[in-house]
Amino acid sequence: MQGQGHAQPVRRPPHDAVLVLVRVVLVALGVFSAGFLAWAMLLRLAVVTRRPVDVGVLVTAVAADVLSIVLLGSEPGDDVHTPGGYLGITLLFGTLLGAVVYYLAADVRHFQRQREAYTAQQYAYAPPASPYTTGTMPPHTPAPSAHSVTPMPRPPLPQPPIPAPPQRPAPARIEQVRAELDELSDYLRKHDGHREGGHEGGR
């Protein structure tokens, strides 16, 4: 099975100023020659486009010019006063008018398409923009592997409760409790002393 061949590269079209100059010169050549050289512009069009239609128009214009020359040459005298002479003049100027209109329309359309094809070709062969020249780095996405398996998330392990440190009473509170105990001891000692003295006096 054969693949498709590569497309032929499109040549860069001439500058617009050059194309306008060539068109003006060829049209002026046909007009100033009274239509006898109208085929020159069609010849240039057929060579540039290489289309069978343009070649057929060139052959028709050349045949019309030759026929008009024959009709005018068969006219007796210098003045045109026969139907053949009038037909030759009409055919000559009609061919000139048709050649000018057809040449300008076909030539403009051809080079416009060539310019569009050349622009598309330039875009097709343009190198990709480098991230080092544009200043932006493309995002890096790793390709997924066929053997890579997404790990399942594990539940968190229960943490043992941390015992709270024993709270120690403040030193001032200890001193206060100690003082109260001392006062209570003195009070009990005195109270016991009074009770012992009362028992001895009763005896």
Compose a concise summary of this entry.
The protein is built from six helices and no strands. It has helices at residues 16-32, 39-49, 52-73, 83-125, 131-134, 171-202. The longest helix has 43 residues, at 83-125.
What report would you give on this structure?
By secondary structure, this protein is an all-alpha fold. The protein has a domain at 16-125. It contains six helices and no strands. It has helices at 16-32, 39-49, 52-73, 83-125, 131-134, 171-202. Helix 2 (39-49) runs parallel beside helix 4 and helix 3 runs antiparallel to helix 4 (83-125). The N and C termini lie far apart (144 Å). Residues 1-5 and 199-203 have low confidence and may be disordered. Residues 152-169 have a biased composition (Pro residues). This is Integral membrane protein. Residues 130-203 are annotated as: Disordered.
Largest sheet: none
Please report which band the strand proportion falls in: under 5%, 5-15%, 15-25%, 25-35%, 35-45% or over 45%: under 5%
Overall pLDDT? 77
How many separate helices?
A: 6
The CA-CA distance between the termini, in Å, is: 144 Å
SSE series: HHHHHH
Low-confidence stretches: 1-5, 199-203
Structural class: mainly alpha
User: Rough shape?
Assistant: rod-shaped
How large is the radius of gyration?
58 Å
| Fraction in helix | 55-70%
Protein name: Integral membrane protein
Keywords: Membrane, Transmembrane, Transmembrane helix
